[in-house]
Amino acid sequence: MAFTNKVIAITGASSGIALALAHHLAEQGARLSLADIAVEPLNKLADELRASGTDVLATPLDVSSSSAVDAWVTATVTHFGRLDGAANIAGIGMDFSSVEDTPDEIWHRVIAVNLSGVMFCVRAQVRVMQRGASIVNATSLAGIRGRPGLGAYVCAKHGVVGLTRTVAKEVGERGIRVNAVAPGPIETPMLQALLDSTPSASSGQTTSTYSTLPLKRKGQAEEVARIFAFLLSDESSYTTGAVMTVDGGASA
Q1: CATH class as words, domain 7-245
Q2: Alpha carbon of residue 239 to chain centroid
Q3: What distance in Å separates the CA atoms of residue 200 and residue 104, rounded to the nearest whole number?
Q4: Which UniProt keywords are listed (predicted)?
Q5: What's the pLDDT at 176?
Q6: Burial class (CB in 10 A: 0-12, 13-18, 19+), 45
Q7: Which of 153, 169, 216, 238 is catalytic?
């Protein structure tokens, strides 16, 4: 199998795309270091995977803490002996608010988790990775285009794109690849929370995207997980600094 004995770290592992990726990589023989701030679902996932024979390290983690991220990556290498790949998917949801109405606390929290959290993970990961390793960061359709009413989220996800492309150039000569995946509307708890939120003029403009997709449907977490897996694998050995859209044609 493509990931037999490879050590892969995943943040946000207990739900959505990251959860689908954890199951997919486990089926492909990977050894997994899983992290999430939600302890109970994280432990449930770890128990399920261990029962099927997967070597799993499960760590409660708030990615907005650089010291906690450093400790997690250190514990991963201590447990497994190395780190071959990482999928940085942890993030928090979106609240509809124009930029002029965005409270300081919302701005700081979204940036702290969705951008700084990715930077802390990437920084710790490249410090311990060897030639042939791969990092894949989660950005979004909101990371490559403007989205009314989602200013903090959009800025954070655009930042992930810039971070990905910059680090890809910094570590390329070491044989480490860094890419990003930009999902569109995917059926996940985060998207459902967005759709269930209080309607507003800006939310109407944003969610109208979902009814005008060329493929005429929302995507499934498993469909995005397979793209993450491709970029983590040796099958994408000449791909770095790329942002792959998985959005049903929304950005076409």
Answers
A1: alpha beta
A2: 18
A3: 21
A4: NADP, Oxidoreductase
A5: 98
A6: buried
A7: 153
Asked whether the predicted pLDDT for residue 201 surpasses 50, the reply is: no
185: pLDDT confidence band, cut at 50, 70 and 90? confident
Summarize pLDDT for 15-64 with one digit per residue, the tens.
999 999 999 999 999 999 999 999 999 999 999 999 999 999 999 999 99
Q: Is 157 a catalytic residue?
A: yes
Per-residue pLDDT for 198 more than 60? no
Residue count of the chain: 252
pTM for the complete prediction?
A: 0.93
**What Å distances lie between residue 2 and 21, 86, 229, CA to CA?**
14, 15, 9
- Catalytic residue from among 157, 169, 216, 218: 157
CA distance 41 to 13: 9
